[in-house]
Specification:
Structural class: mainly alpha
Radius of gyration: 19 Å
Number of strands: 0
Shape: elongated
Helix content: over 70%
Order of helices and strands: HHHHHHHHHH
Number of domains: 2
Oligomer: single chain
Strand content: under 5%
Length: 205
């Protein structure tokens, strides 16, 4: 049997609906860690991320006969994970703990060489500025940066026009450049170089 990654969406869904356990196992193997990583960046606790990821796949399996894919399986999974996690956060009033954990995470410093520490500080600053972006802008930017979703996949996930995604990414990049330029002055070009290395794939999407 072909590995799940070599089958198209219709073939994979058809086999899963028919109860093909091998396709289902390959499907989980392909997407489990990316989905868990996506959820972890929202809840910042591994145990919750693990539990919610299991719920995403359990829900998919139990509802498999009702599922209709209009975009892609990947986009469907990310949308399911996002909705499930947002409901979890809302239900548990998780925002306060989220902010506390986030501050702890971005304040972490590598105690290595001076060059490594400098780079780490720039990365931490970048993370802080990303978190300060407007909510929609931040969510779209992080989906592209961390989850490596294409503009179309992000648009499908958030049910928004692709041009809206383009616009928000542009706003994010412009804002980050200005913030870092103001903060670092003469080292702006060094910072900008790091940003472009990290984000260069955006311009190819």
């Amino acid at each position: 049997m072909k590995n799940a990654e070599f089958l198209n969406n219709d073939d994979i869904l058809s086999k899963i609906k028919s109860g093909d356990r091998e396709t289902w196992a390959n499907f989980i193997k392909m997407y489990y860690e990316p989905i868990k990583g996506f959820i972890y960046r929202m809840v910042l606790q591994n145990a919750h991320a693990e539990e919610l990821t299991q719920d995403v796949f359990a829900n998919f399996w139990y509802k498999r006969h009702e599922i209709v894919i209009k975009t892609s399986l990947k986009a469907y999974l990310y949308r399911s994970a996002r909705n499930l996690t947002l409901n979890f956060i809302k239900r548990n009033k998780y925002e306060a703990n989220y902010n506390a954990q986030l501050e702890k995470t971005i304040s972490y410093q590598h105690n290595e060489t001076e060059e490594q520490i400098h780079y780490s500080e720039l990365e931490l600053t970048l993370k802080r500025e990303i978190e300060n972006l407007p909510e929609e802008c931040k969510e779209i930017f992080k989906l592209s940066r961390y989850e490596e979703l294409s503009y179309k996949e992000i648009a499908d996930l958030l049910e928004t026009p692709v041009r809206r995604v383009h616009y928000q990414i542009g706003i994010a990049l412009k804002t980050l450049r200005e913030k870092l330029k103001n903060k670092y002055g003469n080292t702006y070009f060094t910072v900008l170089y790091i940003i472009l290395i990290n984000l260069m794939d955006f311009f190819d999407r």
